[in-house]
Write a structure and sequence with these properties.
411 residues; alpha+beta; four-stranded mixed sheet; 15 helices; 8% strand; globular; binds protoporphyrin IX containing FE; binds myristic acid
């Protein structure tokens, strides 16, 4: 069978849905990264995928993805007791309501500081503005100080964005991502050593960086400084990656201007529903992957040991069997109900505390609920620009990064 790694790289988000369409209903079998691979979707498939008897993560992620996006030794690559112990660190730091609210306050403060400059300023590129302000906010919240005089915020932002932007491509974007990770791991490993060498003045409420620095793994040992830096980056980078969704939110408001008023005025519940729909509708994480640890079976279909099992997140979020009119953007889907646990899966499925589901969904929703209503309250023009979102690029975004124009007052 033909190896599909190249089609994946060149077709991006359309690859798995196209393959499923061509092969008809049932299990999609293919080859990826030199291994036999199968793809699943749907709530029952989510249950199957997040059971460690069926799918394990060790050795599943290719080196180019680890050296850019997630980092070697990251929580993403662990199984069993090692995973549960490391995951507890992220759940403590990221899912406690007070901590999420504190991060949202930092984001609100940075949004005000930046957006105050925009009226009368002319053109801004939303992607660039939001990425820097989220970097400032998450670094302050996490206890990773930035030297604001030296342009360090912009350098850190560039690196965090590059790690996400370069994980699924060959060529210069990929090498930039590798260099960005090297640089940031080195810097943050030093910070971890410094934090370990200073006494804790806030034992009750340690910052995220201190929590990682003092975390003990299943073997009772501290993380080596480099692995600790990897896990600090697994908090900083994805928070800044919410920029992609913020810009998609701006795109949705541009296409559906009648949603601007409810988003600006209707309060938190509507903002949360809007954020859910942004996460469902727009393409970000294509799928997640693991390996069958022994021969297993899905609905009577054999999956031999060593098969790469893919859970098609993007496909599930657009499955016409699960969503009415999946290609129409409609926050009303979520205004009178929260999505089911294994139904809306832009950040994985199952239980975050037990499996590999993203522990950052509360943070993602809080950041979007802070930023998007504030954006909807601003007045700006959207000049002629390339707003196409190429499905062949991974990750993708409106090509222009979303340029908004705040015309000078006397014009
Ligand atoms: C895992 C997507 C934001 C931290 C994941 C996974 C996906 C994902 C698809 C893998 C789930 C799996 O392997 O089954 C996203 C997207 C985000 C986002 C699209 C939007 C920007 C965040 C945020 C944080 C975060 C804000 C933290 C502040 C993590 C961590 C894991 C993870 C630590 C690894 C969990 C594990 O392996 O147990 N995310 N995420 N993510 N995410 Fe997110
Ligand atoms: C983050 O920075 O962690 C948030 C953005 C995550 C995008 C997630 C992409 C998942 C990719 C899995 C690739 C597997 C390749 C075999």
């Amino acid at each position: 069978m033909f190896d599909n790694t190249l089609p994946l790289l060149t077709q991006g988000y359309a690859w798995l849905p196209d393959l499923s369409r061509r092969k008809g209903p049932g299990l999609v079998r293919t080859r990826l990264l030199g291994k036999p691979a199968i793809a699943l979707r749907g709530p029952a498939a989510v249950e199957f995928f997040y059971d460690e008897n069926h799918v394990r993560r060790r050795s599943a992620l290719p080196e180019p993805v680890l050296s850019t996006l997630f980092g070697k030794g990251a929580v993403h690559t662990l199984d069993g007791a090692e995973h549960r112990q490391r995951k507890a660190l992220f759940v403590t730091v990221l899912k406690e309501a007070a901590a999420v609210a504190a991060l949202a306050r930092h984001v609100a403060e940075e949004w005000e500081r930046s957006s105050r400059q925009w009226p009368g300023h002319g053109r801004i590129t939303l992607f660039d503005e939001v990425s820097v302000l989220l970097t400032r906010a998450v670094c302050a919240w996490a206890g990773a100080p930035i030297d604001h005089r030296s342009g360090e915020a912009e350098q850190i932002t560039r690196d965090l964005i590059a790690m996400v932007d370069g994980f699924a491509t060959a060529g210069p974007r990929h090498w930039q991502a590798r260099r960005a990770r090297q640089r940031q791991e080195k810097r943050l490993a030093q910070l971890i050593e410094e934090v370990r060498a200073t006494s804790d003045h806030s034992a009750q409420n340690p910052s995220a960086v201190r929590a990682v620095a003092l975390h003990r793994d299943a073997d009772g040992e501290l993380l080596d400084a480099r692995t600790a830096a990897v896990e600090v980056l697994n908090i900083l980078r994805p928070t800044v990656a919410v920029t992609w969704y913020a810009v998609f939110g701006a795109h949705a408001l541009h296409r559906r201007p009648e949603l601007r008023k409810p988003l600006a005025m209707n309060g938190d519940d509507y903002a949360r529903a809007f954020a859910h729909e942004v996460r469902r509708f727009y393409p970000f994480a294509p799928f997640v992957a693991g390996l069958a640890p022994h021969d297993v079976e899905w609905r009577g279909e054999p999956i031999p040991e060593g098969t790469l099992v893919l859970l098609d997140l993007y496909g599930q979020n657009h499955d016409p069997g699960l969503w009415e009119a999946p290609y129409s953007f409609d926050p009303e889907r979520f205004t009178d109900r929260e999505p089911g646990r294994d139904e809306l899966v832009p950040q994985g499925g199952g239980e975050a505390s037990r499996g590999h589901r993203c522990p950052g969904e509360d943070v993602t929703l809080a950041v979007l609920s802070t930023v998007l209503p504030r954006l909807a309250q601003l007045e700006y023009d959207v000049p002629e620009q390339d707003l196409r979102i190429p499905l062949k690029r991974m990750p993708t975004k409106p090509r222009s990064g979303f340029v908004a124009d705040f015309p000078p007052e006397d014009s």
